[in-house]
Amino acid sequence: MRGKLGAVIVGLGVLGASALATGSASSHGYISQPPSRQALCAEGTVSDCGDIQYEPQSVEGPKGFPETGPPDGAICSGGNSRFAQLDDPRGGQWPATQLTGGQTYDFTWTFTARHATTDFEYFVSNDSYDPTKPLTRAELQPQPFLTVPYDGEPPSSDTVTQQGTVPTGLTGKHLILAVWNIADTGNAFYACSDVQF
């Protein structure tokens, strides 16, 4: 009896380890530069963030943005109601990173798990953007200003920097939406970074 019980315990342990390994192989990541809203929550710069402060890497939603993906008003949370604090404009008071149009900038992703990737896309808000209201598609320029193709490969390390040129012609408070499109699932990861031109 003791031998059978031991075999069952070992079997359950192997099964549990396999489940954990499978779970940790899923893709997770967020923009750390310029600091995304979830990064600001995780580092404690912004309070009253709910669950996102513990898992900034988990803003996952349907891919296909802007044609599909998260609904208007829930883009920054990836359409995930657990992270609705990311869609709250907080009266336009999210801390913003100073940028100058035309400058070269190093956009940095932090990953807790890497996964096969189609590409990374970066969108910026247009002149209709109202920082005191939840983000809608109509407030974003329709095409990404930067696309970084990965052709199905995973990111090479736990931190990846992608250099791009910041769009010109914008003034005041704006928002950059970064989208990490996963190659072998129907999802993408979303991160909103508040910026000041």
UniProtKB/TrEMBL annotation:
Q: Which UniProt keywords apply?
A: Signal
UniProt cross-references to CDD domains, sorted A to Z: LPMO_AA10
Chitin-binding type-4 domain span: 28-195
Q: Which InterPro entries match?
A: Cellulose/chitin-bd_N (IPR004302), GlcNAc_Chitin_IntDeg (IPR051024), Ig_E-set (IPR014756)
Signal peptide segment: 1-21
Q: Write out the ranges of the annotated region (Disordered).
A: 56-93
UniProt keyword Ribonucleoprotein, yes or no: no
Q: Identify the Pfam families for this entry.
A: LPMO_10
Indicate whether Nucleus appears among the record's keywords.
no
PANTHER family found in the cross-reference section: CHITIN-BINDING TYPE-4 DOMAIN-CONTAINING PROTEIN, GLCNAC-BINDING PROTEIN A
Q: What's the name of the protein?
A: Chitin-binding protein
Q: Which organism is it from?
A: Streptomyces roseochromogenus subsp. oscitans DS 12.976
